[in-house]
Specification:
Layout (H helix, E strand, L loop, with lengths): L8 H25 L6 H16 L8 H14 L1 H24 L5 H31 L4 H14 L1 H20 L2 H18 L10
Helix pairs in contact: 1-2, 1-3, 1-8, 2-3, 2-4, 2-5, 2-8, 4-5, 5-6, 7-8
Length: 207
C-alpha cells in the first residue's frame, strides 16, 4: 500500500527540487568533463533525457541513483552524436554573433531592417534549440530529420510554444533577480519547464 505522505504536495515539491538540484550538479560536472565546449551538448542531452523521466513518465520511479546512472549512460552514448550537432549550432551562433558585431558599421538606413532580421534570426535559433533537445531524446530519426522536426515543432502547437517561451523567459528573469537559483537548479529548472510545457507538442506521450 502506498504511504499517504508520499503523495503530499509538499513532499512531491521537495522531491522534485532535490532531483533538479542533483541533475543541475551533474550537468555542470559533465559539461566540465568535456572541457565545456565538448561537454555542453552531451550533458544537456543527458539532462533532457532524465528530465523526460521526471515529467513524462512516473517520476516516483526515478530514484536519485537511477537518474545519476541514466545521466552517465546517456552522456557516454550520445557524446559523439550530440557534439556533431553542437558544432552545427556553435557555427550558427558564431555567424549570428559576427553579424551583430558588423551591424554598427552599416549605413544608418540598413541598420534598422538588418537589426530586426538579426533579432528574428537569433530568437528563432533559440526556439529551435529549445525544441531540438526534446526532439532528439524523444524521436529516433535520421540525422537531418532532427533539424526538420526542430524547425517544425514550434509551429505545431503555437500555444504550447508560447507557453514554453513565456515560462523560460520568466524563469530566466527570476535567475537575474535571485542569482543563487542558478547554482541549485538554473539549467535543470529551464529543462524541466521546457519538457513540462512542450509535452502537448509531441504526437505521442511517452509510456
Amino acid at each position: 500500500m502506498k504511504i499517504r505522505w508520499l503523495s503530499h504536495p509538499l513532499y512531491r515539491a521537495a522531491d522534485l527540487f532535490t532531483k533538479l538540484v542533483m541533475l543541475n550538479f551533474l550537468w555542470a560536472i559533465f559539461t566540465l568533463a568535456g572541457l565545456i565546449v565538448f561537454g555542453l551538448f552531451p550533458a544537456t542531452v543527458a539532462l533532457f533525457s532524465q528530465m523526460r523521466r521526471i515529467t513524462w513518465k512516473d517520476w516516483e520511479s526515478a530514484s536519485l541513483y537511477s537518474l545519476f546512472h541514466g545521466f552517465y549512460q546517456e552522456w557516454k552514448q550520445y557524446f559523439i552524436k550530440a557534439n556533431t550537432w553542437g558544432l552545427l549550432f556553435y557555427l550558427a551562433g558564431t555567424v549570428l554573433f559576427v553579424n551583430w558585431l558588423i551591424l554598427p558599421q552599416l549605413d544608418s538606413a540598413l541598420q534598422l531592417p538588418m537589426t530586426a532580421a538579426h533579432l528574428f534570426s537569433t530568437g528563432f535559433l533559440l526556439v529551435v534549440l529549445m525544441f531540438w533537445f526534446p526532439a532528439f531524446i524523444h524521436y529516433e530519426l535520421k540525422w537531418m530529420d532532427y533539424l526538420k522536426v526542430a524547425f517544425l515543432l514550434p509551429f505545431k502547437n503555437i500555444l504550447s510554444t508560447f507557453m514554453v517561451i513565456a515560462g523560460v523567459s520568466v524563469f530566466i528573469a527570476l535567475l537575474f533577480w535571485f542569482p543563487p537559483i542558478i547554482s541549485f537548479a538554473g539549467i535543470s529548472g529551464i529543462a524541466w519547464l521546457i519538457m513540462s510545457l512542450s509535452v502537448k507538442t509531441f504526437t505521442t506521450r511517452v509510456a
